[in-house]
Amino acid sequence: MNRNIRNTPFFLVLIVVILGLSVIACGTQTEPQPSATPTAAQPTETIKPSETATAAPSNTATLQPTATSTEEPPSQLPVITHSLPTITSAPTTPSLSTMTELPPIPEISFLGVEIAGETDLEAAEQLGTFWVRRNGVLWHEIEPIEGQLDWDVLSGLDTELKTLSENDREVILVVRGTPDWAQRIPGYYCGPIEKDNLEDYGDFISELVARYSVPPYNVKYWELGNEPDVNHEAVLPDMMFGCWGDPDDEYYGGEYYAEMLKVIYPVIKEADPEAQVLLGGLLLDCDPDDPPETQPGSGEYRECKSSRYLEGVLENGGGEYFDGVSFHAYDYYFNTMGHFGNGNWRSSWRSTGPLLITKVNFIRDLLGEYGYTDKFLVNSEVSVLCGSTGKEDFCKSGDFQNTKANYVPQAYSAAKAEGLFANVWYSMQGWRNSGLVKKNGDPYPAYKALKFAVEQFDDVKYTGDITSYPEIMGYEFERGGGYFWVIWAMDDKNHTVILPDQPTAIFDSIGTELPAEKTLTVTLEPLYIEWIP
User: Fold this and answer.
1) By CB neighbour count within 10 A (0-12 exposed, 13-18 middle, 19+ buried), where does 436 fall?
2) CATH 3.20.20.80 placement within the chain
3) How many CB atoms lie within 10 A of CB 478?
4) pLDDT in tens, 332-382
């Protein structure tokens, strides 16, 4: 059977596929439409799989939200205004993750969600994701006075972790918060630890790991900080960000974070040899190698030095003192159904697909330069953000909620294809309307989409990209003695696609079964297409 998927080589052949790139302003997060916007009345385009294929999107760009606003909407968003070029053979440009020797991927689910407390436990259990991230340990609350630890502060967390363990969930536990007496920057609980107090931090971490690494809690994944590559001057002192960023340093403070790792990593491993240490959820604000303009057409470019933070960690020998890299990858809603992107990384629905692809390539490339191809990656915060607060009228629209639901199969199929250890939705209740459930617990369509994705991606293997259909992005996965695709259009047209074989089932993003036809229409809304015996 000719499935028309790419067999990825182990070397890089760079194909420049972008013909037109227009940088546009989006002060209200709107995205101007291409000059010839398709309408429902337009004829559809019939596509058959063949040796003539549209080049797969290039996934080599790199950037994200600003540290000065801790993830405010980007000031410009790129769109491709022309069709991608047709080439005479199947594209050979692999995603970077397939060009380097990757760490082994465990035979466990990669789907995850972040929760904020006991109120989210029931919804998380019904959702069924294997990974649960919990930003729940604050050193400054447990040891406000040096040498006096109050573990009763964590009584609520005790209950959560016990429940999650009993239900076979794997927890990523975030540790942050610097006490007054250990602060390198006075007044900043989110800031770095004074060097003379790193051993005190080690003593605290040792007791913490010893407490939670064993039954009934069984925590094995420890994330040190949350967005430490944020400038402390850009946030309030008690923010939930890491704010270890130093704008006066070439590597934005990454070298000092490495000094912390050198002390803490051995302590954690001694307390629990099975423990896995994660860098603290890097924001990676924007692309330091290809920075965006401060204003469209200005010719002045943003300083993206904060994204050199990881490089600073590696430059100072920190690569030996962590097991995996946790990072964040948010896309922004463009006020039109199915349209999203992140101008800080020149990423969009029309070009690269979900931002996580771009950031994975950036991180793996950097790790490879320093010889650390064995580190696993966790996208510990992924979702689509809307508006400045999420309370704007367009953020309450059905179009946004449908875009969010459709983003789920796009982001999670891409995460599996890129070999992520875990891909964690932020969060159950979210921010800027990124949540899976309402405050009263009622589910949004995105909740149903992620629940269905949990079922679809159970025990699957990524086998290739779908590249035979112009303007369509997708992936193939093996499962249950058969295989399935996740595909969607990268423009606003209706594409009539002829499949290579009669499918056994077809579903939309939230699991609604559709007619299993060999000829079907593909739009911006992703489809699961199954050939399962």
Assistant:
1) buried
2) 109-458
3) 14
4) 999 999 999 999 999 999 999 999 999 999 999 999 999 999 999 999 999
3-state class of 436 per DSSP?
A: coil
CA 338 to chain centre: 18
Give Cα 120 to chain centroid, integer Å: 21
Token output for 385 = 């953000």
Other beta carbons within 10 angstroms of residue 421's beta carbon come to: 26
- Supply φ then ψ for residue 487, to 5 degrees: -135, 155
Beta strands in 298-413 (DSSP E): 324-333, 340-342, 347-348, 376-385
Distance between CA atoms of 34 and 492, rounded to whole angstroms? 10
Using the CB atoms, write b or e for 67-93: b if 16+ within 10 Å: beebbebbbbbbbbbeebeeeeebbbb
Cis peptide before 103 (omega within 30 of 0): no
Residues 233-287 have pLDDT tens digits of 999 998 888 899 999 999 999 999 999 999 999 999 999 999 999 999 999 999 9
Main-chain dihedrals φ then ψ at residue 470, nearest 5 degrees: -55, 140
160 and 117 in contact (C-beta within 8 Å)? yes
Q: What is the mean pLDDT of residues 324-329?
A: 98
Q: What are the strands, taking DSSP E only, across 52-203?
A: 53-54, 76-79, 86-87, 111-115, 131-138, 170-176
Which fold does the domain 109-458 belong to in CATH?
Answer: TIM Barrel (3.20.20)
Residues 6+ apart with CB under 8 A from 39: none
Q: Crossing angle of helices 398-417/355-369, nearest 10°?
A: 30
- Give ∠ CA 233-382-156 in degrees, rounded to 5: 80
User: Given the DSSP bridges, would you call strands 527-531 and 505-507 parallel, antiparallel or unpaired?
Assistant: antiparallel
Cβ(193)–Cβ(260) below 8 Å: yes
- Grouping H, G, I as helix, E, B as strand and the rest as coil, residue 161 is helix
* pTM beyond 0.85, yes or no: no
| Residue 520 scores a pLDDT above 90 | yes
pLDDT at 404 over 70: yes
Supply the mean pLDDT for the chain: 84
CA angle, residues 452, 455, 458, in degrees to nearest 5: 145
Three-class SS string for 361-383? HHHHHHHHHCCCCCCEEEEEEEE
Contact assessment for residue 488 and residue 522, using Cβ atoms and an 8 Å cutoff: yes
Residue 134's CB: how many other CB atoms inside 10 A?
Answer: 20
In the chain, the amino acid numbered 268 is: I
| Mean pLDDT on 168-174 | 97
**CA proximity to 171, closest of 108, 114, 241:** 114
| Closest-CA residue to 35 (of 2, 4, 80) | 80
